[in-house]
Specification:
The protein contains 3 helices and no strands. It has one domain: Non-ribosomal Peptide Synthetase Peptidyl Carrier Protein, Chain A (Orthogonal Bundle), CATH 1.10.1200.10. It is mainly α.
């Protein structure tokens, strides 16, 4: 899923900011184009696209700073769901 998540996240960010050249480990907040509204759009995009809920304790800026950080968050949130359904 990591590659699919990476592709979807990059597609979402570059659709909003088509002129940005972004690496997967680059801090999108440090680049200066991300505002609080876009941060909330990212949260909603992740929840909808990956069919998950982001708990309040996971709503940390560090989890959304880079494509890599968001991929890790998606992977972490998806893992317990698949384990719980097998139990």
């Amino acid at each position: 899923m990591s590659d699919a998540a990476r592709v979807e996240l990059r597609r979402f960010i570059t659709a909003k900011y088509p002129t940005i050249e972004l690496t997967d480990d680059q801090d999108i907040f440090a680049l200066g184009f991300v505002n609080s509204l876009f941060a909330m759009e990212l949260v909603m995009f992740v929840e909808k696209t990956f069919d998950t809920r982001i708990p309040n304790d996971e709503l940390r800026l560090d989890h959304f700073r880079s494509v890599n950080a968001m991929v890790e968050l998606v992977h972490r949130l998806s893992a317990p769901t698949s384990q719980a359904s097998g139990a």
